[in-house]
Structure formats: structure tokens, C-alpha cells
Amino acid sequence: MAPSTTVPSASAVEVPETLLKKRKQNEKAREERLAAAVAARKAQKTKRTVIFKRAEAYVKEYEQKEREEIRLKRVARAAGDFYVPAQPKVYFVVRIRGINEIAPKPRKILQLLRLLQINNGVFVKATRATQQMLRLVEPYIAYGEPNLKSVRELIYKRGYGKVDKQRIPLSHNGVIEEALAKYDILSVEDLIHEIFTAGPNFKQASNFLWPFKLSNPTGGWRTRKFKHFVQGGDFGDREENINNLVRKMN
Fold first, then answer.
1. Do 235 and 140 meet the contact criterion of CB atoms below 8 Å apart?
2. How many CA atoms lie less than 13 Å away from 18 in the CB half-sphere?
3. Mean pLDDT over residues 194-205, rounded?
4. CA gyration radius for the chain?
């Protein structure tokens, strides 16, 4: 009679050592991934809270500044005086003229300002040096003091960042945080605040922003485009009227 053959049970089969090690490694890697995901979610939640609190603080700051300006105007009117607003901290500069017949010096200044094409726009800090530069290239640009609405609309609608020398859309806060976290700029609202108030890291924030590529203004330029703004043309310092031009070009 032939001997009976039995199939060993699963518990009786010995598992190879290499397979056991691989299982342990996979399990350990899985636990590490889960722990990292939980930590990332907590960090993201904390960061989101910080961003919201900062945004609320910025809104209060803007409102307080606006109320203070209204109060000063009323005080001056009541005293029979004129209220003289503070000097602008930031200019928004738009190039309105091409490359034909430009002298070497203005051409170089336009390159320094990163205004390489018609309808390019940049934010510039208002200092004595920049004001002298703007006067030298005045026939080729229109500039003025942007308000908060203009700054916000430009960055939200036309904002692109310079990341590794590439033009990247500001589709989420991560793009800004990756480039400007060391300057404590984590979100779009931080970037707007830094530009609008000409903060200590204005230079880094402005250089991070790719020059804005604007459209021709709705209704076109004035008939005498190459005369000064006060003479019925388009170039030169528009002061607060730059905001009307931004609305038409954005």
C-alpha cells in the first residue's frame, strides 16, 4: 500500500528570511509615510491659521489708515487749511513707447526697471534715485501712485512669479512661500501688503514678481500719446490717475 501524502498547513511552512525583512521594511515605510502625512496636515492647518490671521490684521491696518486720512482731511478743512497727503511710497510704472529712437542712457534705465516691452508694468519703490531715473525716461513711461485695489487686482489677475528664471503663475500660496519664506512672505496677501506698504523686503518681493504684461487700454491711448499727461497726452507722472489707466489695461 502506497504511503499517504499530506499537504503541510500554512503555519507549518517557513517563510524565507529575505521576505520577512522586506515585509518589515514595507511596514516601517508605511508607518513613516502615515506619520509624515499627519504631520504635514497639522503644519498646513497651522500655516493656514497664520495666513488668515495675517490677512485680518492687514484689513484692519488698511481700514485704520483710510479712516486716519479722512480724519486729517476733516481737521484741515475745519481749520480752513489744505490737507497735503504724504509722499507716495510706491510707483507703478508702465512702458508706453517702443524701442525706436531711444538714446543709450534711457534704454539702459528701462532695462534696469525691467520694462523691456510696450505695456510692461512694474512696482518701483519711491526713492530719490528712482525718481531721478523715472524723470530721465519720462517720455517712454506712464507712472503714478497705485492704490490698494490696483495692487490687489494686478497681482491676483496678472501676477506671475520668477522661480528658477521661469515665469510661474501665482496659482497657490506654495509658489510664493517656496521663494519668499525666508523673508516671512507666505501668501498672496503677504505679498500685496509688502508691495503696497513698501515694506523692508520690498526689493525681494518686487523682483520675485515677473513684469506685468498688460493689454492696450480700453478705448485706446489718447490722440496725442507722446505729450505729457498734463498737456493732454499719456506719458509722465499721473499721480493717482494711474489707477484709472490700470483699470483700462488690466
1. yes
2. 0
3. 90
4. 29
Q: What is the pLDDT of residues 21-47, one digit of tens each?
A: 888 888 888 888 888 888 878 877 877
pTM: 0.77
Q: What DSSP string runs through 12-49? A: GSPPPHHHHHHHHHHHHHHHHHHHHHHHHHHHHHHHHH
Residue-by-residue DSSP string for 150-218: HHHHHHHHH-EEEETTEEEE--SHHHHHHHHGGGT--SHHHHHHHHHTT-TTHHHHHHHBPPEEPPPPT
Q: Which of 165, 164, 162 has its CA nearest to residue 207?
A: 162
Which of 87-96, 126-135, 155-164, 219-228 is predicted least confidently? 219-228
Mean pLDDT score across all residues of the chain:
86
